[in-house]
User: Fold 3-phosphoshikimate 1-carboxyvinyltransferase from Rheinheimera lutimaris.
Amino acid sequence: MKTLTLNPIAKVAGEVHLPGSKSISNRVLLLAALAKGTTHITNLLDSDDIKHMLNALTALGIGYKLSDCRTRCDVHGIGGLFNHPQALTMFLGNAGTAMRPLTAALAASNVDVTLTGEPRMYERPIGHLVDALRQWQADIRYTGSEDFPPLHIKGKALQGGSMQIDGSISSQFLTAVLMVAPLLAGDSEIDITGELVSKPYIDITLALMQRFGVTVQNHNYKRFSIKGNQLYRSPGQWLVEGDASSASYFLAAAAIKGGSIKVTGIGKHAVQGDIHFADALEAMGAEVEWGDDYIMVTRNTLNGIDRDYNAIPDAAMTIATTALFAKGPTVIRNVYNWRVKETDRLAAMATELRKVGAEVEEGHDYLKVTPPATLKHASIATYNDHRMAMCFSLVALSDTSVTIEDPDCTAKTFPHYFSLFQQLAC
Ligand SMILES: O=C(O)C1=C[C@@H](OP(=O)(O)O)[C@@H](O)[C@H](O)C1
Ligand SMILES: C=C(OP(=O)(O)O)C(=O)O
Assistant:
């Protein structure tokens, strides 16, 4: 297995222009495909998750042209749902932002599709989404285990109507039904059961739908009302914001070992909830400066904090390794759904943090990290989880080196992460 050893880094400083947001890239690609007109997307993320969405669009006959090292994409929308009656099989890797929204869009299209993925995708539950779509009479069948992909979808015109959807495991299920609802014949009322998790991702969905000309009524994240029989219209140009989750590693590095680091491509008006990772760093003691198109963090002494991170589950992982450099314990609360992402992130994080010397309490939905006096070298297993690999790069900001196993797993969202990270060393 390939490994990467990062030697101790004495100081970091500099500027990073962020690759495009994964969440926005895959939403915009899908909305652009369904919209009337051509959408000219710039700063598109070039990573595995996005390739899976693009391959799906190709298979469905959507015309698009990639340029500028795949960061520019001109998508020719079809002004409605997909129409590809010949049977297809689509491999979607482990991309939740492809699997979930495509399931809903395809269930309402004239298609006959089997959605497959990596082995881990078959352990990530999708039952709440399928149960919800079946209330709209969708024809979806599990071809492996009940409640998990792979799925066989025999798409057909759906009327919409009232639906109850469980929001307690993933917000991506709600995102999926919201995006397809305006294209159905009738109006829809979507009621959320369970406490909706990861709410800011719903804000991203609603903001993007709005830019494509569709308004959703959000009744306090409990009920959503959407008029049917609408059309998405291309907004023309679209610049994808930098990825706020990817920004977290650089901002944390500055807080731990700056100098200052400035990330550009996101700023105080960004639509991604993960920008609030910077607020958590500030609460730990870092200095944060916000611009229209940048966030800059400067080092200060860090203290452990105890917080609810349900709104920012991805960036919260970065807090877990930043905690190694704080004074006192750090508690990361209300992140049960870490267990159903790329790996069981609560278990994986606890195991690997202990290897570098931390004392860790792993709860059902929380992690308490007490840093050691000095960190130990370890070879970090990454569980095919890009965020495990990126989070543990921060250990090199101590007096010890760290070995990252399978560093190429960052290809899911950030193929060039390690070269950018190492360039900040000074
Ligand atoms: O909608 C999105 O773009 C995402 C929502 C979140 O998932 P959950 O809603 O499952 O927490 C997040 O973890 C994921 O990386 C991207
Ligand atoms: C949970 C993640 O991915 P996905 O979009 O596949 O859910 C993630 O990127 O941390």
Q: What stands out?
A: Residues 23, 96-97, 170-172, 175, 197-198, 201, 313-314, 337 surround shikimate-3-phosphate (ligand 1) (CB under 6 Å).
